[in-house]
TrEMBL record:
The keyword Nuclease applies. This is CRISPR-associated endonuclease Cas9. Pfam families: HNH_5. It comes from Microbacterium ginsengisoli. PANTHER family: OS07G0170200 PROTEIN (PTHR33877:SF2), SLL1193 PROTEIN (PTHR33877). One of its GO terms (molecular function) is endonuclease activity.
């Protein structure tokens, strides 16, 4: 059981275990916004419903802009595991501007690619190959990228995650 934690301004911060959420609520550092009906938590002081969404009592300043780190898994996930050139299933990533020509490891320069297209392209640019990208690569956006644990989101979280998008 997991719980979505919202900042005092209803900004999604994190996903924590329901035990951690209960500790925050019992210490009056958070209040319950959404509950899971049925299957209550039984303790010495009685039974209480499991929290699905909690909101912090005080605003927590998030240091800096949340940047999603560039990873192979992230590029494949962003592109839906589809090749940016032919649309088939992708298993590798490709530098649009090859590293041998100064291409960097950035969201704007990396795309998911199938093994065949990656081998054919080599260290050339798509323009030299007369290929076009199926989509414009860029940094991913939305709560599912900045808030860890929202890949398998609870349906009760949707209204709160939509606010962050």
């Amino acid at each position: 059981m997991r719980t979505l934690v919202l900042n005092a301004g209803y900004e999604p911060l994190a996903v924590v275990s329901f035990k951690r959420a209960l500790v925050l609520v019992m210490n009056e550092k958070a209040t319950v916004v959404e509950r899971v009906e049925g299957d209550p938590v039984v303790g010495l002081r009685g039974a209480c419903d499991r929290p699905a969404v909690i909101i912090l009592s005080r605003y927590v300043r998030v240091p800096g802009a949340r940047r999603v780190p560039v990873t192979r898994r992230g590029v494949l996930r962003r592109d839906g595991n589809r090749c940016a050139y032919c649309g088939k299933a992708a298993s590798t990533i490709d530098h649009v501007q090859p590293r041998s020509r100064g291409g960097k490891d950035t969201w704007e320069n990396l795309v998911a690619c199938c093994l065949r297209c990656n081998n054919v392209k080599g260290d050339r640019t798509p323009q030299e190959m007369a290929w076009t990208l199926r989509m414009e690569p860029g940094a991913p956006r939305g709560a599912q990228w900045t808030v860890r644990g929202t890949e398998r989101a609870d349906p009760r979280w949707e209204p709160y995650l939509a606010l962050a998008a």
